[in-house]
Amino acid sequence: MRKEQRNKLLAVTGLLAGLALLAAGPVMADDTSATTTVGADAQGAPAPEEKPKPQFNIYGYVQLDTGYDSKQVDPNWFDVLRPTKLPSYKDQFGADGNTYMSVRQTRFGVKASAPTDLGDLKTTFEWELFGVGVDAGQTTIRLRHAYLELGHFGAGQTWSPFMDPDVFPNSLEYWGPNGMVFFRNVQVRWMPIMGDTKLIFALERPGASGDAGNYADRIELATVKAHFPYPDLSVQYRQQGDWGHVQLSGIVRRLEWVDTNPAPTYNLSGSANGWGVNISSNIKFRKADTLRLSYIYGEGVENYMNDAPADLGIQTNPGNAVQPVVGKLLPVTGIVAFYDLAWNDKWTTSIGVSSVMIDNSNGQAPNAFKKGEYALVNLLCTPVKDLMVGGEVQWGKRENFSDGWSVNDLRVQLSARANFSVLFGGNK
Prior knowledge:
428 residues, mainly beta, Porin, 3-stranded mixed β-sheet, 52% strand
């Protein structure tokens, strides 16, 4: 595993070095051309109109997080506050009171822009060190964005149009408000309206998860597999001005599950149409203060949420011997309300709350996740350009479906971040 990680890092480093050299070359040629043009203009010749030039930006930051967790959390998520990852019963993850340190927020990215006859061709390639999925808990390379855009069309992995990334507050805690839509998805998009008013349509990679609940150990369910015949369809409308912005987003999706048993005892196949509506806004106050708000409601859209459980639950179907249980899309409600306040040009504070509520199906286990709450307040300082230090108090709460269990978690975190950005090419 370590050898594979070293090979990844060496490959990425070599790639970036080559890109930087390629980008640096045109800068020297452009500078020489500019010198010649100035000389010709001084002799009375008209200066030609400067054409747009390609540019290449390397950016990112290094961040250290250290803190104390008064309770306990799934060890794969030791350095973030996710209510779904808090214990669902007493001492599930060991003893309370743990110190953590992490550099997993560290980020690296490259952006490029090149003029073409159809407009600027823009590309973004960005990753971080926060392992998820099979790499959960590890400090390893994780892709964030791999996206290209030309004119009114875009393709690749980037923010879902169902999401409003500007709802995310200026916080130290990495994962963020649990009640917001937050998903970078593979997609193709069409943007017929661009600018202060935006309209986006996208076809997105489908996917979902299910909770077998009280029937998880039934062998009959082992042959039931997910089926996604169509992409998810999302749409976003956004109106922006000096006062801030308001955004309305929606999504529809088709979820199917198929029993692959060639001789099934029961009919366990099924399908459902998921959907969601997300309303969000930023409202600006004073010179640099921002109120960040969002409300989302939907059924079977949990995998688009920042911190929510399964999209599909199991529901009993009394009186039906052929289909004793059915799948049910789980309704979800999410709320975010944060205020980012700038005390002056060096000191800032973010304070706010968020929540996720699930309408559970009756076949889910008593300790299934039902509700999560999230809140924080911080004080951040930028003593010099590109350096940020600060402290933050974080609180989270988990409530189970029907066994009466709930748990509160209080954390204190200190962080330091150093940003970097180098631009090659472009018009001077």
